[in-house]
Amino acid sequence: MDRNQYISIAQRLIDAEVGKREVTRITTEHPDLTVDDAYRIQEELVGIKLGQGYRIIGAKMGLTNPAKMKQMRVEEPIYGYIFDYMVVDGNVLKLSELIHPKVEAEIAFILGEDLEGPGVTIEQVLAAAEYVVPALEMIDSRYENFQFTLPDVIADNTSASRVFIGSAMRKPADLELDLVGVTLAVNGELKDLGAGAAVLGHPAQSVAMLAGMLSRKGLKLKAGQVILTGGMTGALMLSPGDTVTVKWDGLGTMEFRVEE
Ligand code: OOG
Ligand code: MG
Question: How many helices (H) and strands (E) does the chain have?
Fold first, then answer.
């Protein structure tokens, strides 16, 4: 594959996002697409968005949860980028802006210092992190029926779409992040639950691994960035009228309403 092909696939995925319509997954047309190709497409997609004036505010890890890896039938974590326009202000999610979003409960880090891999440890992540915050990630695959292979979802910026960032800011040393439990309820009914340990054994391990993956590209995580570590729960489909309530140990409660 050459750069022009990467760019045209990236543009197709951006058009799907902006036009709010599903597209056929790339591997239907390109069955030999590799993970490396996929990150090259993702880089072009990120470049196009930066060229449109959007800003990267951080990064996300995905498929860090064994339940999720099974649900999506893949074997290794993946990363993508979070842009400024993805952050939702307030407590309403508008379905009309998206394709077929699902919600995940996550733990996020706000970095106070740069983090450069390889070989980053959990302790180094905790030391570099200024705050830990709760976050709700809305993933919205641009592919038909939310179905994809690993390279497809990497190219699609790992389904990144929207995020609610919680207001509880805690110092990492004040929490045992692997033991933090979370419950996710819709209209008062418990739908899923999880714990920090579901994220690669410890959410900070996810950031450490991300720093390692970025270092292979000569990149690093930067002070001020927010890093979503991956779903502690499965991903839950949303319907108009839903009220989603998520409670974390030590990180408070977040709630939002889903509208048409
Ligand atoms: C890929 C993104 C998964 C997570 O936290 O595991 C993800 C997807 O399932 O669409 O964000
Ligand atoms: Mg996620």
Answer: 7, 12
Distance, in Å, from the CA atom of 253 to the CA atom of 129, rounded to the nearest integer, reads 21
Q: What's the CA gap between 99 and 89, in Å, rounded?
A: 19
- The pTM score is 0.97
Length of the chain: 260
Report the amino acid identity of residue 169. Answer: M
Give me the residues paired with residue 40 across strands: none
Are residues 184 and 244 in contact, defined by beta-carbon separation less than 8 angstroms?
Answer: yes
Q: How far is the CA of 245 from the centre of ligand 1 (A)?
A: 20
Structure letter (DSSP) for residue 81: E
Nearest-CA residue for ligand 1 atom 11 is: 62
Which residues are registered as beta bridge partners of 134? 107
As a whole number of Å, the end-to-end CA separation of the chain is 40
For the chain, 260 residues long, give each residue's pLDDT as a single digit of tens.
999 999 999 999 999 999 999 999 999 999 999 999 999 999 999 999 999 999 999 999 999 988 767 766 777 799 999 999 999 999 999 999 999 999 999 999 999 999 999 999 999 999 999 999 999 999 999 999 999 999 999 999 999 999 999 999 999 999 999 999 999 999 999 999 999 999 999 999 999 999 999 999 999 999 999 999 999 999 999 999 999 999 999 999 999 999 99
153 lines ligand 1 (CB under 6 A): yes
State in Å: Cα 150 to ligand 1 middle: 11
- CA 8 to centroid of ligand 2, rounded, Å: 26
Beta-carbon contacts of residue 221 (< 8 Å; ≥ 6 apart): 59, 111, 114, 115, 116, 207, 210, 211, 214, 227
